[in-house]
């Protein structure tokens, strides 16, 4: 009987040891899983940071390259600046084990969409919380791209009550036409005589020649307003806006051309980033 008691105690001790072992293994396994998840999340955060950083610095580089290319624009100077930037980025990221690649597409005339491309956002707010607009220019409007009267490009100036001034631009039998109105009346109908595609909204000029005033300042002075482009894929050219926001800060927005840039970032033969982004030159400053 005493021998049976000893066997029972041994079985009990062995079971106790096995139970402790299971608990220890479970804790260790949980720690391993936690450490793996933490490392994975850390890698994701790093990738997000790398993506944001490389896109921002590349956009800024394109803008500086364009600014430093001189006036008139010098393609050789622009390409030399971007080649130097790309070489520096290759060296910088190689220290972290990344392979950086930058492919620059050709310069393109910009549509009046949000990103400058034909398939970009058609209806978008160019600037809001505006107190004063000193200069508003449209230039090099492409007649072959410009929509007709039923599919026109529209500029709207809106305050909290609605539209206080608007202009419709369209192709009328091979001539650039401009119809302007305010909240209640039609201000005037205009045409581009020389068809150079230059319209100075704040300076009351078409193709450099004075016209009956568009009455832009008359309708917006003293207002807090936004400027919106509608149906932007139906117009191609350049535009420039300059003035002050309601907080007193100046703003300057200019769009000349757009370029598609493809950025790749590889590490250990694994593609971390591969993105093609439209870069507007120069970029708007607010």
From TrEMBL:
The chain crosses the membrane at residues 12-34. Keywords: Membrane, Transmembrane, Transmembrane helix. This is Uncharacterized protein. It comes from Methanolobus vulcani.
């Amino acid at each position: 009987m005493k021998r049976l008691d000893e066997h029972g105690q041994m079985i009990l001790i062995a079971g106790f040891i096995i139970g402790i072992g299971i608990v220890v293994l479970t804790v260790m396994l949980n720690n391993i899983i936690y450490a793996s998840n933490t490392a994975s999340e850390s890698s994701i955060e790093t990738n997000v940071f790398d993506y944001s950083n490389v896109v921002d610095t590349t956009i800024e580089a394109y803008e500086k390259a364009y600014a430093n290319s001189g006036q008139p624009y010098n393609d050789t100077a622009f390409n030399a600046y971007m080649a130097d930037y790309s070489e520096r980025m290759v060296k910088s990221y190689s220290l972290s084990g990344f392979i950086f690649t930058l492919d620059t597409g050709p310069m393109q005339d910009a549509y009046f969409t949000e990103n400058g491309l034909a398939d970009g956002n058609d209806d978008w707010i160019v600037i809001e919380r505006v107190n004063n607009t000193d200069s508003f220019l449209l230039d090099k409007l492409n007649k072959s791209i410009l929509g007709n009267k039923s599919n026109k490009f529209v500029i709207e100036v809106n305050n909290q009550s609605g539209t206080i001034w608007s202009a419709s631009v369209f192709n009328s039998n091979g001539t650039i036409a401009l119809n302007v109105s305010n909240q209640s009346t039609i201000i005037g109908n205009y045409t581009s005589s020389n068809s150079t595609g230059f319209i100075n909204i704040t300076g009351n000029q078409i193709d450099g020649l004075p016209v009956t005033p568009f009455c832009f300042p008359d309708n917006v002075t003293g207002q807090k307003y936004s400027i919106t482009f509608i149906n932007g894929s139906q117009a191609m050219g350049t535009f420039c806006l300059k003035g002050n926001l309601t907080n007193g800060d100046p703003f300057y927005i200019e769009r000349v051309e757009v370029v598609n840039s493809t950025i790749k970032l590889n590490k250990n033969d694994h593609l971390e980033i591969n993105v093609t982004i439209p870069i507007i030159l120069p970029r708007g400053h607010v």
